[in-house]
Specification:
By secondary structure, the protein is α+β, with helices and mostly antiparallel strands. Helix content is 41%, strand content 26%. The strands form two sheets. A five-stranded mixed β-sheet has the order 1-6-7-5-8. A hairpin with a 2-residue loop joins strand 6 and strand 7. Helix 2 packs antiparallel against helix 3 and helix 2 crosses helix 4. It is globular.
């Protein structure tokens, strides 16, 4: 168990909400296309990754036609350049480690954009494996409290299959980040829902296992601004860093 950090809360509040609606649709459409292609199926019931991507699309009110076009693109039914999954690793301001996941139709273009962004912000793009060892793939479930005791609810979430639980307040409502083994994400999410909790989202993430502490506001601000710039890139799906304070 671990309490959720002030830093993480600030990152969440300043993160996806700052991305323009059109950019969100582009990112979600790419995620749907990749999920459909990787799973070889347009059926979310037999393609869990597609199901999660479609849930994300509905959460941002993406029109059904957009969702269907993304699925058809992923299955090769529409013309256009093919998409590829890419990952990037590097160090940003304050020597914070970053691990990025993206989808692109032009790897050279995206690589140059990422490299330039790191260099312009006092960081450096690194080779494969430079930061990946500092993160571990996990399932992450965002859960809303039932209104009971925080300690009791954390213990209950662990009994339901959580490996780790982080608590935080958002809009004066008690919430939790529940982490699971990747293979148990759907199973634990179902159990949590059946236990009466609200589940806001379920996704696969890279959780930092080796963290650094940011000790001054200036560096914290630089890291936040750099993270936002990365998130604003159309080709970048997820941005992970190893700040832990």
């Amino acid at each position: 168990m671990s309490g959720h950090s002030k830093w993480s809360t600030i990152k969440r509040q300043k993160g996806a909400a700052d991305i323009k609606r059109g950019q969100i649709f582009t990112k979600v459409a790419n995620a749907i296309a990749i999920a459909a292609r990787a799973g070889g199926s347009a059926d979310p019931n037999s393609n869990p990754r597609l199901r999660m991507a479609m849930e994300e699309a509905r959460a941002v009110n993406m029109p059904k036609d957009n969702i269907q076009r993304a699925i058809e693109r992923g299955l090769g039914k529409l013309p256009g350049q093919s998409l590829e999954e890419v990952t990037y690793e590097g160090f940003g301001p304050g020597k914070v480690a970053f691990y990025l996941e993206g989808v692109t139709d032009n790897k050279l273009r995206t690589l140059q954009e990422i490299k330039n962004l790191f260099e312009r912000n006092g960081g450096s793009l690194a080779g494969q494996g430079a930061t990946a060892y500092m993160f571990s793939p996990k399932g992450e479930i965002k859960v809303v409290s039932k209104g009971g005791s925080k300690d009791d609810e954390i213990l209950e979430l662990i009994d339901l299959g959580a490996e780790d639980v982080e608590d935080y307040l958002e809009e004066n409502i008690q919430r939790y980040l529940v982490y699971t083994e990747v293979s148990k994400l759907a199973e634990v999410g179902t159990k949590i829902t059946q236990a009466g909790y609200g589940v806001e989202s379920q996704e696969l993430v890279m959780k930092p296992t080796v963290t650094v502490e940011i000790k001054d506001e200036e560096t914290a601000q630089k890291v936040l601004e750099f993270t936002e710039k990365l998130e604003e890139l159309d080709d970048i799906q997820k941005v992970y860093d190893n700040t832990g304070n």
